[in-house]
Structures are given as structure tokens and as C-alpha cells.
Amino acid sequence: MIIRSLLLRHGRRALPKPPTPSPVRTCRRSLTTAGASDVEATYQNPHADQHYIESAAGGTKSQAVHSLESRSSPPTIALEDDQIARDWHFFHHQKKHTEHIGSAVQKHYRPHEQVSNPPWPRDITLELLMASQAHIGHSTSLWNPSNAKYIFGVRGEHDPIHIISLDVTAAHLRRACKVVKGVTERGGLILFVGSREGQARIVVRAAELAQGCHLFSKWIPGSITNGQQILGKCRKKVVNEYDQEVTGFDDQLVQKAALKPDLVVCLNPLENYVLLHECGLNNIPTIGIVDTDANPTWVTYPIPANDDSLRSVQLIAGVLGRAGQEGQSARLEKAKRRIVDYRQDHGLSPPSKESEETRTKREKEQSLLAGADAFDVSEAAVYADADADEPERTDVTAEQVVNMERLAQMGSVDPGLLSEQLGLAAEQADVPYEVDAPLGQQRQQRQDEGAAKQVNPFQRPTEDAEQTSAWQGKGAESGRKE
Amino acid sequence: MGRYNLAPQRVHKTATQLLQTKRAPASPPPWYPILSTVPPSSRLDRPPLQRSQLPGHKPPGGRKKSRLYKPLQLRYEEDRLRWEYFNDHPWELARPRVVLEDDGRDAERWDWSVPLDHALSRPRAGEVGERGESLDIEWEAVRARQAGRPINGEAVVQRQRYLITHGHPPQLAYDTARKEFYRHRHQVEIATRVAREEALAVGAFFGPGPLEVGMGLEDRAYEQWKGWAEKEVAAMKQMAGAAYTGTETESGREGLDVPEGPGVEAEELQEVAGSVPASSRGQLAQGGAGVHP
């Protein structure tokens, strides 16, 4: 084997020099006599290179030289190209003439696709929920009577179970999707929690889609109520509206408390009572899958469904992750058009202008640090992994540029232009799914909404998204939060 | 309500109050607008799930216990058919069956107007039906759509239900569906047997079946026991012989595998017997290694 790899590695360089025997060849001669032919016999590669190696190894010098000459002549290369073209044509000829033969494979359930390509909120159907076993509840003796309104009936004589009503499930799931989308659209941080066995992959995937945090191990009690002690050492960073990191806040971030999520999605509320209780104490809304034995008052938005079937849990988590993805992309899309219709109370002040001297010093330090990181690559990778596993990704979304607001305050811009931009944002802020829209009324309603925008152009961008609920028809109450 | 913590339901209300009293930061949290437009559903309400009795109908024995808030028992027409079929064919339940669904609309694909033994009743080539249609082409078209239909106990129930809803009397429907199924199953069994015989004829080896494997394990256990018992008997005989000679033979006990742990322990105890801690003589300075190795 060693000889073979030597041949392959040095074949081109070492072997074409017949007048002076190369070290490889001498080594080869001394090592093998009969074994050489076996090695060459294993190589049936049609390329000229290989012929060349074979002849050089097994044959005489003259043969090697001869093959070198024949290879270097241009007709050989032309012939090869011709062969490739002919192969290509033959392949497509075969494809064309055989593509209608055989049976057509229908689309079918492939478990890995639930994680790699989760369904979108618009794909939720009762059939899909039923195929995912979302309707199967627990034994009737285990039920929590608070769930009576989610229950469709009892099935079975000897060991009866409750059947969850799938239309209720779909309604609650869509509602939860709207919440997830709305929160991510305003730059909120979502925490996905699923600590049962097998839920880790979909939890991570959903968090990845929604650009939030994930937790698939035990919730450390106090991570919210006592976050400064538990998560105080986690790194924080400041990002702008394009999700790019903004530097220069290090001294301010040291003073900042650990981040709290703006929304928590819990796939198994039964095992995470402490987490949900902490969220209640800190006024953080929660979304949870509520089986027939769970208490629906533990969460803000219950989704009545089967939390024991991995397929059902993956469906729900995947759909929520996709909703988060929709929200994030809508937010980034608006940011690209310089529209930032939300703000967060990070309480950070813009970094002061540093003197030239300190800046050069800091840059030098950073370059040194970067050099150290690059040097210890393996350790850096380990740390990166540890960071990824951290339940709490701590970053502060800082909106430095609230251009619209400033412009409106200055009043130096044409109000018509401003309202046009606002109306554009309004139209795209909270578009209902097609299946939810009343037939034929949607367009009319949207036009009315646009007209209302024109009347009141000087709205603060912060409330803008709030008043754009064309679906709920609450546009008239938009100013009440002031 | 003392039992329930309703804080999760009231997050929006609490946030509004905090904002109004200016105890929270100036601008609302990111979830605030969406929670006002999409509020959570109501909780802890008991909808009446069923009637206590039929309207205008009074139970004979006075007032019945109200089941108003209990979930309904779900019953379907097929349940009775299943009950009958699987009582008549209990071993059908022992056969594995795929219950995985693709998209939840799998059941819509199968056409139960097609007999269960449709695959076996292929018309001759060129055969023409009453209305002048070519039967073999029709048969192939049906096969193209229905070839994947699983033919099992559930198929009998579905076929029977189809026949009943299309005017067959229940018993006739049951017999029709059952006999179609028998024919299909018979054919499958023959095909399996012939395939096995063919394979054996050309030299296939299927390995020992579960019964052979079980018997082999049992035989091995018996053989082991036999070896052990022979050794035991030899040892006992030797001991019995030694009892009459009057000499102590330790060799006779070797076969019995008596553990020699207690002997060693006793020896070690002998060594330190004279030294008793907390006595008038006191303890010898022998170290703990011998006693506590």
C-alpha cells in the first residue's frame, strides 16, 4: 500500500526522469519483485496517467519514455475531450429516452424532513395534524378538567383515551405562529425549550430558524429571576438593525443585567414548571404544548396537542420556527429599506468619541487577541461549541438609527413621502395567511387601511406595526397605547 | 382564584399597568403590540359537551346523573364491524400492520368499490364487457391506482362498510368481503410457499427458525446441567466413601466448589485474637494491613 501511494504521489514528478534513477524507483526495485505486478493490476484506471505509471513501474525505461512522448502529443488530449463530450451526449440521450419508464414516486413522509425542511404556518391542515398524531391525548383517568374545551371526545372501551379536537389545535397553533412572528418582527428574542428525549434536534433547528435561543437540557432554576448570578458571565453583544455587531459598548455591557427572553416556547410544560413560573413572575409571555394531562394556565398561549409523539412535537416546533423565520426576514427586509418600526430599551448610550491614541491602542490589543485565537485553533473551536450550547445567547439589540423618528421630529421632510413609506411598512407588517382571510373582503379592507394611513401621517414608527392589523380590524384604536 | 396562578394570562394587562404607572422602561417590550392584537384565548371555561338526556325524554328511574360536562364517547359505524370481524378472526390482530400516514389523506386514495381480490380476477386479453369496453385495459387502469391498497383485516371492514352503504344487507356484505379476502389471502400464501420451495430447490438456506433457535438453547442448557450433575454425583460418592474409612479427605470437597473465603478470614482473626482494643491488656501494635487488607 505504501508503495502504491508513493507511486501515486510522486508518479508525475519522479518517474519521467529515466536517465538518472529516482529514489522512488530505487526504493521500489529493492522492495518488490513479484508484488509490483499485483499492485499495478489493481489499477484499471483508463487515464493515460495511470498507464504511464504502470509502464514506468513494471516495464523498462524505454517504455516509460515512450509513454511520456505519446502522452505529451496534442491528439491524445483532443481524443479525451471528444470522449467526455460523447459520454455527456450519451448520458442525456439515455435520460431523455428512459425518463418516462418506471413508476412515479409520490411524495411521502420522510421523518428527517421534519427537521431539515419544516412545514410553514400556511401548511397547517387538520389532515397533517392528524397524520402527526397530534390528536391523541392521555388516558381519561389522567386528564386535567381545565382542558375540557380542547377535547373532542373519548375513544376506546377498555382503556379509553381523550381525543384532542384538531380544529382547536390548528386555531391555537396559528395564533401562536402569529405571536412568534410578531415578536421576531420587532426584534424580540425567543427561547425554545424542549427537554424530553429526542426533542433536541428540532429545538435547535427551530431556534436556528427564528434566530433565537434553545435549551434541550435542564432549565437551571433562577436563570431568569436570578440571571445575574447564573448567566452573568455569558458574553453580551450589541447588534444593529441589520444584526451586525456594533463594538465599543464593552464598558457599558459589563454593567448590564443578563438578558431575558421576550418569548418562551416550551414543548414540554409538565417538566418545565419552574421555567414557566419564572416567566410568569417576570412578565414574559409563554407558548406551550398542552396535552390532556397538563395545566393550560401555566402558559400564556396553550397549543392543545400530543406532546408525547415526536412527530407531533416536531411539527409544532418546526411550524413555530418557520413563523419566527418569517418574522426575522420581514424585519431584515424592512431594515434594508431603512425602516425600523420598533425600539428596545437597552439603556445604552452611544460610545464616546475616543481619542486617536486610545483607538490605536485598542486596535492593537484586538489584533493581538485575534492572533492568539488563530494560534490556538482547537481550543477556540471548543469554546465556540460551548457557546453554542449555552442556553442563553446574550445579545442586546440596539437600534441606533431610528431615522424615521428623527425625521418626523425635525419635520424637514415632505410628509407625503414619509406617509408613503409608513404605508408601505404597514401593508407588509401583519399580512394574514391566505387561508385565514375572508373571501373577497381582504382587498377592500386593505385599501381602507391605506386610506386611514394617509389621513394621519405623523405617527411614531413605534406604534406603526400596532395599528396595521388589517386582519383584526383594530386600526381605529391604534393611538391608544400612547 | 387561589389554586391557579393566572400571571401567564395577564402578562399584557400587567405590562399595560406598569407602563401606565411608568414603573417599566419607557417603551413597551417587543411582544407588547402583538399580544394586544392577538390576545390569548380564554381559559378554564367548561363548555357543555353533551346533553344530559334526549329532549322530551325522561329517564325511567327518576333523575339521572348529569353528564353535561363529560366528553362525548366517540363511536363509529365501523366499530361494530371490527368487533365482529376480529372476534371471528383473532389471529388477524397478530399480523403486523403499518399505521404510519403520509399526509393524513391516505385513506382517501383507496377505492373500496374495487373487490379485495381484484388482482386475481384479471380478464383475458381483448375481452369485451357488456357495454363494449375492453375489460383488460380497465383492469390495468384500476390496478395502476389501487395496487398499493393494503389488504388486511381493516380492508375487510372497509369493504363491508362500503357494501352496506350501497344497499347490501349486512350479512351478505360481510360474507362477500370475507370471501374476497379469503381468496386473496389464499393466493398470497400459495405464492409465498411456492417461492420458498423454489428458493430451497436452487439451494437457498433460510437459517434456523425461531422454534429451532429456542430448542437449541434449551438443549444447551440441558447439556450443561448434565455435566454439572455428573460432577456433583461423583463428589458426593467420594464423600460417602470417605465417611466409612474415617479419614478426613479435603480432596472430596474440591468438586463442590466451597469458597475458601471464611477459612482465610478465620486465620487472620486468629492472628489478632490476643489483641482486644479497649480491654485491660490493650491492643497489639500489629498494624491494620492484615485485618483490613
Automatic annotation (TrEMBL), chain A:
Cross-referenced SUPFAM superfamilies: Ribosomal protein S2 (SSF52313)
The annotated region (Disordered) lies at 341-365, 433-482
Q: What are the recorded GO MF terms, alphabetically?
A: structural constituent of ribosome
GO cellular component terms, A-Z: mitochondrial small ribosomal subunit
Which first-to-last residue range defines the signal peptide? none
Q: Name the InterPro entries for this protein.
A: Ribosomal_uS2, Ribosomal_uS2_bac/mit/plastid, Ribosomal_uS2_CS, Ribosomal_uS2_flav_dom_sf
Q: Where is the composition biased (Basic and acidic residues)?
A: 353-365
| CDD domains, alphabetized | RPS2
**Gene Ontology terms: biological process:** translation
Q: Which UniProt keywords apply?
A: Ribonucleoprotein, Ribosomal protein
Family of the protein in this entry: Belongs to the universal ribosomal protein uS2 family.
Name of the protein this chain belongs to: Ribosomal protein S2
TrEMBL record, chain B:
Where does the record place it? Mitochondrion
This protein's GO CC annotations: mitochondrial small ribosomal subunit
Q: Which GO terms describe its molecular function?
A: structural constituent of ribosome
Keyword annotations of the record? Mitochondrion, Ribonucleoprotein, Ribosomal protein
Question: What is one Pfam family matched by this protein?
Answer: MRP-S25
Where mainly found?
A: mitochondrion
Residue segments, region Disordered: 20-67, 244-293
Source domain of life is Eukaryota
- Record-stated family: Belongs to the mitochondrion-specific ribosomal protein mS23 family.
What PANTHER family does the record tag this protein with?
A: 37S RIBOSOMAL PROTEIN S25, MITOCHONDRIAL, SMALL RIBOSOMAL SUBUNIT PROTEIN MS23
Indicate what this protein is called per its UniProt record. Answer: Small ribosomal subunit protein mS23
Native organism taxonomy: Eukaryota, Fungi, Dikarya, Ascomycota, Pezizomycotina
